[in-house]
Structures are given as C-alpha cells and as structure tokens.
Design brief:
Blueprint (H helix, E strand, L loop, with lengths): L2 H6 L5 E3 L8 H9 L4 E4 L9 H18 L8 E6 L7 H10 L4 E5 L4 H9 L3 E6 L2 H9 L4 E5 L12 H9 L6 E4 L5 H10 L3 E4 L1 H4 L8 H9 L5 E4 L7 E4 H6 L4 H7 L31 H17 L1
Parallel strand pairs: 1-8, 2-3, 3-4, 4-5, 5-6, 6-7, 7-8
Antiparallel strand pairs: 9-10
The structure holds flavin mononucleotide.
Amino acid sequence: MTLSDRLSQLPLPIICAPMFLVSTPKLVIECCKSGVVGSFPALNVRPQEKLDEWITDIKSALDEFKTSNPEQVVAPFAVNQVVHPSNSRLAADQAIIAKHQVPLVITSQGNPSDIVEQVHSWGGQVFHDVIKVSHAKKAISAGVDGLILVTAGAGGHGGTLNPFAFVREVRSFWDGPIILAGGINDGFGIKAAQSLGADMVYMGTRFIATQEAQVDQDYKNMLIKCAIEDIVFSDHFTGVHANYLIPSLERVGINVQDLISKGKVDLDLGNTNFWTDIWSAGHGVGGINDIPSIQELTNKLLADYKTAAML
Ligand SMILES: Cc1cc2nc3c(=O)[nH]c(=O)nc-3n(C[C@H](O)[C@H](O)[C@H](O)COP(=O)(O)O)c2cc1C
C-alpha cells in the first residue's frame, strides 16, 4: 500500500508534529498505534549514532502491534530533518533514514531537493515546512509531495500568516497535500482546516499535555493553566521568532513587560537552557484542560470531529 493510501485510511487526518526535546519513541509509537502519524526531529537523538536504535525500536513496536491487532489502523511514522547547511548531522542522519526506508520525511529550514530524490527512490514521501508563499513555491519546484503550512500561533517557531489566507492562496496553485499547523487542538479545528482546503493537520502543543509525553510535569500543568494571553512571540532567545509560555519565562526571572516593550531583556540568561527551562506552546493552549492518554485524546478528537461534521 502506498503512503498516500495509508494516510487516506487514517481515522483522523492528524500528524503529531515533531517537537524538539519533546518527541520520543514512546510518543511516536503511541500516536501511530492510535492512528495518528507520529514524528520526531532527528536532532532529538543524541548521540547521533542512536538514531538507528530509535527507528528500529519504533518499527519493531509497530510491527508487533500490527501482528497482534490486525484489524487496527496503524499510522506511518515520520522523521524531521533540518535541511539548513548549519545541520552538520544531515548526511549521517539521512543515511540511517535511507537504511530504514522511512515512509515520510518532514524537511524544514532550507532546500529539500537532495532529500526528495533519495526518499522517492524507496517510495517514501517528503513534506516540507513553510511559513511563506514564496517558500511553498520553492518547495514545489524541489519536488516535495506535501506542504506543511505553519501559521500564526503555532507552537515552536510559529509563522505569522493568517491560516485562512495562507491555505487559500497556496490552494490556488497547488493540488497536492496541504497540512495546516498552528493552534489546532480539537476535532472542530481539524474539520475547519479541511473546509479551508487542507488535507491534514499538524498538532504539537496538544500532544505535550498527554500521559505519554516525557516532559516535566510542571510543563504539562502549565499548559492546563495557560490561555492564549499567556503566550508571547519573541526572537530574543534563539534569534528566530517562537511562541513561549509567559509563566515559564517568569520562572527564570525574565521581565515579560520588558520583553514585549523592548523586544529583549537585559537579564543574563547564561545558565538558562532554552527549550528545557523555557517552554513553548501554541495559541491553542486555552483549549487544553486535561492530560489524557493518547488513546483517550484521539477518541475525544474523533467524537468532536464527527460533531463538527454535522454542524
Ligand atoms: C516544544 C515544541 C518544540 C518544537 N520543535 C520543533 C522542531 O524541532 N522541528 C519542527 O519542525 N517543528 C518544531 N515545533 C513546531 C511543531 O512541529 C508544529 O509546527 C507546531 O507545534 C504546531 O502548532 P501547535 O503547537 O499550535 O499545534 C515545535 C513545537 C513545540 C511546541
């Protein structure tokens, strides 16, 4: 069965987005078992040599599950590759991805042409992350199979474009798969994305507040307590704009009013580990009120999705 066929048979059109320091084999496996495409950034694997082990573990856990649950739809998994020239591990990680013939490779931050050629050689597909229409056009020229439109309010390095306008403009010149990302955390958002013309959605933040996510419990609790006004979009910490949970900045002594008014803070952040001490989330955080298992979450997403379809 082709990857496109497998994706079209999923109970819900969801990719659990790759998240730096958050995505683990456990999260990926449990997502795939629940019919959600699980993914992880190759850069989460340290040292690099362990990538082989991660992919082997994911494949064998899913094969075992399929054998004992032949009726269950098991989703494919994806690995995210940063294709920017600054990624010194790209070739080594890609060799492991090729060895395992990973079905779906998600590329970000650069030109995916070389990866596209390789992945197509084993019948896999490449979806590329974009935040601008010009990036989408370049990715299409590079031969990608799908476009992930990262819009305003997405967790991590969010975009700035409005999802309504972005999807409609890309749909005017691209017939292939569109995956919409940014603040989507329930079945109503999934249905709305499809109404706009997207084929699938990318959901990141919602999956951090699950039993299986191996992150600090305080991070999960903060997601429950926070709402959209607790998110700030700043390029001060990494040089690239990202959405952060304000209480996680305050925890390490950052004056958020200074950050908002001056765009920077004078505090010496020398000992602060970005992404481990300071936490990211998308605008959808206000809709997160619990920490379910991934199976409970997907059951709820499916129920809401069906309700939304009847509206
Ligand atoms: C904590 C965190 C880490 C992330 N790390 C990455 C990453 O390493 N690579 C990537 O392509 N996207 C990364 N993202 C962005 C997600 O892949 C996705 O675009 C985003 O989570 C979708 O928006 P949502 O969180 O509002 O659902 C990250 C997002 C979060 C919340």
